[in-house]
Amino acid sequence: MIGSILIANRGEIAVRIIRSCRDMGIRSVAVYSEADRDSLHVKMADAAVCIGPPASADSYLNTQNIIAAACGSGCDAIHPGVGFLSENAQFAEDVTQAGLIFIGPDAATIRLVGDKVEARRTVKEAGIPFTPGSPGPIESPQEARRIASEIGYPVIIKAAAGGGGRGMRIVEREEEMEEAFTIASHEALSFFSNGTIYMEKYLRNPRHVEVQLLSDGKGAVVHLGERDCSVQKNHQKLIEESPSSALNTAQRERMCKDAVRLFKRLHYSGAGTVEFLVYEGKHYFMEVNARVQVEHPVSEAVSGIDIIKEQIRIAAGEHLGYTQKQLHISGYALECRINARTPGKISLFIPPLGPAVRVDTHLYTEGSVSPYYDPLAAKIIVHTDDRASGIKTMLRALQELEIRGITTNKDEQLTILTSKIFNSGTYGTDIYSRIFQE
Ligand code: ADP
Q1: Degrees to nearest 5, angle at CA 316 with 309 and 224
Q2: Do 33 and 54 contact (CB within 8 A), yes or no?
Q3: How many CB atoms are closer than 10 A to CB 215?
Q4: What mean pLDDT is predicted for residues 272-284?
Q5: Does the reported pTM lie above 0.85?
Q6: Distance 149 CA to ligand 1 centre (A)
Q7: Is the dihedral of CA 144, 147, 153, 158 positive or negative?
Q8: Which of 292, 329, 295 is nearest to 312 (CA)?
Q9: Which of 120, 108, 310 is nearest to 220 (CA)?
Q10: Which pLDDT value is given to residue 308?
Q11: Of all atoms in ligand 1, which is nearest to the CA of residue 133?
Q12: CA nearest 327: which of 357, 312, 355, 307?
């Protein structure tokens, strides 16, 4: 039993977790930096503890202060949310060693899938398709050139410890390899404190499709269908939807089956995602995200499952208690991320309401968007019968949405939603640059 949870995060995801805690009768404890005193998650939680100055390194990444706050406030578990410490194996270990429950997979699993080279090895052993590439880390430009000539250009060099769309470099020709190798290793080291890099075949204009999974660590694994996250700007997701218009029923089944098989092999415990690229009708493993994701509401909408509640139940040692057959995935869900382009005080915030609309946000009138953290300001999610009506409902929602005091990407989202190419359902990850002709 978990009676009290410390949420080691901020912003909309902290608010989201507090809501599930409340639904479950669990006491929620927020943590906040000095810059977040007036944040919504602080107001909403049952208790709140200041954990340091504004810089993330001193507050939301300060494992000692966070664990001390959890122990000092009588919590029995920590939910890491997304970003920050959510995929930090050492943190998961420290939490457990402090006698607390970490709401997420165990440290060994986080470590394994956090190393993309190791993850690809596991996937290979499981017989799941993955993009051709280097069998392990690449050590020199010579080795990089040799492997690239085997798999064929273009290739993409990635940081083994990478994430968030950073630390990747596309190499079109052999002449570019030397420089790309050097820059990629430096970037890997400076972004992720680990200079290990590897190589994959670069697929031109694929779809990004991922499978949401729940796994109780006791043998039961279910999927909640897929999310298509192909609408990206600089490899960062902007719009997510389910089901994906890129898959037919047979392809969907194959992909979901592979994802379930991987989680079974990992003895995974908790919620997680397997990301794939879909290219010419086939899916290729890309990575595992060992945490809840920003776009989880899309899967909640089509499945009716509260993923945060399931994370908490699984962490408490409960069995999943249902099978794949008992799940009903229905309708169409669409999420638009509203990002702040500037920090500042919110002079007016009017969220969209009405049928089929959900808003996850930490914004409120007189609140503010901090310059210190992630610019995600709100997620608008709609759930309808089909894609065409979902897009219409999203347009209605975005037209209702009003955020004054800061600038956001709302108009850009409207442009995408009304574009011919997005409405056609036939596009790839280059859709953003095609619409905005970058
Ligand atoms: P991160 O962990 O940083 O999010 P990912 O490996 O998930 O990085 O990749 C992010 C995005 O980069 C993908 O959604 C896709 O658009 C692009 N990408 C990654 N690998 C490839 C590849 N092999 N071919 C084409 N695009 C890729």
Answers
A1: 40
A2: yes
A3: 25
A4: 97
A5: yes
A6: 21
A7: negative
A8: 292
A9: 310
A10: 98
A11: 23
A12: 307
Instruction: Find the residues whose C-beta lies inside 6 A of ligand 1.
Output: 131, 156, 162-166, 200, 202-203, 206, 208, 232, 235, 275, 277, 286-287, 429
Half-sphere exposure (CA, 13 Å, Cβ side) for 165? 11
Q: What is the mean pLDDT of residues 194-201?
A: 94
Report the distance separating Cα 304 and Cα 329, nearest Å: 8
pLDDT above 90 (res 419): yes
Instruction: List pLDDT tens digits, range 53-112.
Output: 999 999 999 999 999 999 999 999 999 999 999 999 999 999 999 999 999 999 999 999
Q: What pLDDT, on the 0 to 100 scale, is given for residue 237?
A: 97
Ligand 1 center from residue 156 Cα (angstroms): 9
CA–CA separation, 246 and 230 (whole Å): 10
Q: What angle do CA 54, 237, 364 make, to 5 degrees?
A: 45
DSSP-assigned letters across all residues of 311-331: HHHHHTT------GGG----S
8 vs 422: CA distance, rounded Å = 36
Residues known to be catalytic: 291
Q: Which residue's C-alpha comes closest to atom 2 of ligand 1?
A: 163
Determine the pLDDT at residue 438: 61
**What is the residue with the minimal CA distance to atom 6 of ligand 1?**
286
Write down all domains in the chain, each with its CATH number in brackets. 4-103 (3.40.50.20), 132-201 (3.30.1490.20), 207-436 (3.30.470.20)
- H or E element at residue 359: strand 357-361
Indicate the Cα dihedral angle 416, 11, 102, 271, nearest 10°: -20
Question: Which token pair is 404?
Answer: 């004054």
The β-bridge partners of 157 are 169, 199
pLDDT in tens, 118-142: 999 999 999 999 999 999 999 999 9
Determine the distance from the C-alpha atom of residue 102 to the mean position of all C-alpha atoms in its chain, rounded to a whole number: 18
